[in-house]
């Protein structure tokens, strides 16, 4: 099993990198690409072996890899879906949806209502047991429906949830004038 790779980026493709590690080029599937060719990259790797395929999924932290491994234990969540979830929502966004029992918070392209509910049911007892998964954030002061609808509207505009999550919460918490998702989006874009 390959668990870690470090080397120079030789090629950047759609959703993957080829990393040269000691003369061997490894194709590593990643959620977001923050490297350029010839950059030195390092990844914690999940090696996915199935019938006649071998795929490597790369993560910048061991925490992301660990959470990825938990996600793929859920029936109906394969490695590609887990990678998309982590890329779009981040570990914190997924944990938040699980802790709040909020399937809408997990709905992205490729994840339907039934899969979102399975994730919550299967992982609710496991989330928070690891110290790195405990967010410690008080979410009771946020209108969850307003939050979900605002995030969905901004994602339609091209934003990623893990990039806008904290800013949207801040707008909802700090601005008493926001009553609708349109208000939140307007205030978010003004800031």
The fourth-level CATH homologous superfamily of the largest domain is 5' to 3' exonuclease, C-terminal subdomain
Q: Whole-Å distance between the termini? A: 46 Å
Roughly how many Å is the radius of gyration? 18 Å
Number of domains: 3
Instruction: Report strand order across the widest sheet.
Output: 1-2-3-5-4
> Roughly what percent helix?
40-55%
Report the principal-axis shape.
globular
Please tally the β strands and state the result.
Answer: 5
Report the CATH architecture of the largest domain. Answer: Orthogonal Bundle
Low-confidence stretches: 129-140
**H and E order:** EEEEEHHHHHH
So how many helices?
Answer: 6
The biggest beta sheet reads: 5 strands, mixed, barrel
Range of strand content: 15-25%
Structural class computed from helices and strand pairing: alpha+beta
Instruction: Determine the CATH topology of the largest domain.
Output: DNA polymerase, domain 1
> CATH class of the largest domain, please?
Mainly Alpha
Mean of residue pLDDT values: 84
Write the layout of secondary structure elements.
Layout (H helix, E strand, L loop, with lengths): L3 E10 L2 E6 L2 E6 L10 E11 L2 E7 L2 H10 L7 H21 L13 H11 L20 H13 L4 H14 L6 H10 L1
Parallel strand pairs: 3-5
Antiparallel strand pairs: 1-2, 1-4, 2-3, 4-5
Helix pairs in contact: 1-2, 4-5, 4-6, 5-6
Detailed description of the structure:
The chain has helices spanning 62-71, 79-99, 113-123, 144-156, 161-174, 181-190; strands at residues 4-13, 16-21, 24-29, 40-50, 53-59. The chain has 191 residues and is α+β, with helices and mostly antiparallel strands. The chain folds into three domains: 4-59, Nucleic acid-binding proteins (OB fold (Dihydrolipoamide Acetyltransferase, E2P)), CATH 2.40.50.140; 63-133, DNA polymerase, domain 1, CATH 1.10.150; 144-190. Strands 1-2-3-5-4 form a five-stranded mixed β-barrel. The longest helix is centred in the middle third of the chain and has 21 residues, at 79-99. Mean pLDDT is 84; it is low at 129-140.
């Amino acid at each position: 099993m390959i668990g870690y790779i470090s080397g120079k980026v030789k090629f950047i493709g759609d959703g993957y990198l080829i990393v040269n590690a000691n003369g061997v080029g490894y194709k590593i599937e990643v959620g977001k690409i923050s490297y350029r060719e010839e950059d030195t990259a390092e990844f914690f790797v999940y090696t996915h072996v199935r019938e006649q395929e071998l795929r490597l999924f790369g993560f910048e932290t061991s925490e992301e890899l660990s959470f990825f491994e938990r996600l793929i234990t859920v029936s109906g969540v394969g490695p590609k879906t887990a990678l998309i979830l982590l890329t779009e929502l981040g570990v914190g966004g997924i944990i938040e949806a699980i802790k709040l029992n909020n399937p809408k918070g997990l709905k992205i392209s490729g994840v339907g209502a039934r899969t979102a509910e399975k994730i919550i049911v299967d992982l609710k007892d496991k989330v928070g047991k690891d110290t790195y998964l405990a967010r410690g954030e008080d979410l009771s002061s946020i209108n969850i429906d307003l939050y979900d609808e605002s995030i969905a509207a901004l994602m339609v505009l091209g934003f990623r949830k893990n990039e806008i999550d904290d800013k949207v919460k801040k707008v909802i918490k700090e601005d008493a004038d926001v009553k609708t998702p349109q208000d939140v989006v307007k205030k978010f874009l003004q800031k």
